[in-house]
Amino acid sequence: MGRLAPILVVAVALAASAGPAAAATPPVVGGTSFNDATPIGTGTFSDALDTGSTVFYKLHLNAGQRLNAGASLDVSGLDPSLTASSSLVMRLYGPLRGQDANAQALGPGDAATHLKSTSAELGPVSEAGDYFVSAGVNDFLPQNGASAQLPLSLTLGTTSGTARPAPAARHSSGGSGTSWAVLVALCAGGVLLGTAGGLAVRRR
Predict the structure, then answer these.
(1) Helix, strand, or coil here: 28?
(2) How far apart are CA 49 and CA 203, in angstroms?
(3) Which has the closest alpha carbon to 57: 154, 157, 132?
(4) Do the bridges between strand 38-39 and strand 65-74 make them parallel or antiparallel, or are there none, so unpaired?
(5) Which of 37, 163, 28, 164 is nearest to 93 (CA)?
């Protein structure tokens, strides 16, 4: 028993230290616009939202990938009379910053967890590049009310898919649309017919 005691103490200490670390959600701080959007990868991240604010993130997608995004906002720190008018909004944007998907969660949220949750997906995308995710909450507090900071959980995942094929390139040789190869063939045919006609006349 004397030899086992140190081993048990070490095992318990390792389990206690490894448990919370393994379950911890990496914190991030989202940017305030596209220009300073925080680069992140796939996984679950924790952030915070001030009422009336929006945060931005970006991640790289390869052609053919699909983006699955989910967000949950903890509104337990608000007065219950204010949570019903709140709105969690998440948007997904392409490399050119055009909005491609939109999701919204209204109402008081889950009665047990006090979470407003929503999700959206994008893709399969046709081109590789940086794609953007934004999460925001409308300012539903009274006009003179102080801004509240609400915990936000963001989950991003990617799956493989089939990218939309790029449109075929079109070649034009002028207004008629007739290729030079066809014109050359027609000219050659005309010469051959003329030569054959001349020989026939001579033989007569």
Answers:
(1) coil
(2) 97
(3) 132
(4) unpaired
(5) 37
Q: Which of 121, 115, 132 is nearest to 32 (CA)?
A: 132
H or E segment at 74? strand 65-74
Name residue 64's amino acid: G
Beta bridge partners of 160: 65
For the stretch 136-177, pLDDT in tens is 988 665 555 567 789 999 999 999 865 554 444 444 444 444
Q: Whose CA is closest to 136, among 109, 96, 103, 100?
A: 103
**CB environment 69-101: b (16+ within 10 A), e (fewer):** bbbbbbbeebeeebbeebbbbbbbbbeeeeebb
65-75 per-position pLDDT tens digit: 999 999 999 98
What would the pLDDT profile of 17-30 be if each residue is shown by its tens digit? 444 444 568 899 99
DSSP characters for 135-186? EEE---S-TTPPP-EEEEEEEEEEEE--PPPPPPP----SSS---HHHHHHH
Q: Enumerate residues 6+ apart whose C-beta is below 8 A from 25.
A: 44, 45, 46, 153
Q: Which of 135, 151, 138, 150 is nearest to 57 (CA)?
A: 135
Which tokens hold the place of 156?
A: 């991003």
The per-residue pLDDT for 85 is 75
Q: Which residues pair with 117 in a beta bridge?
A: 72
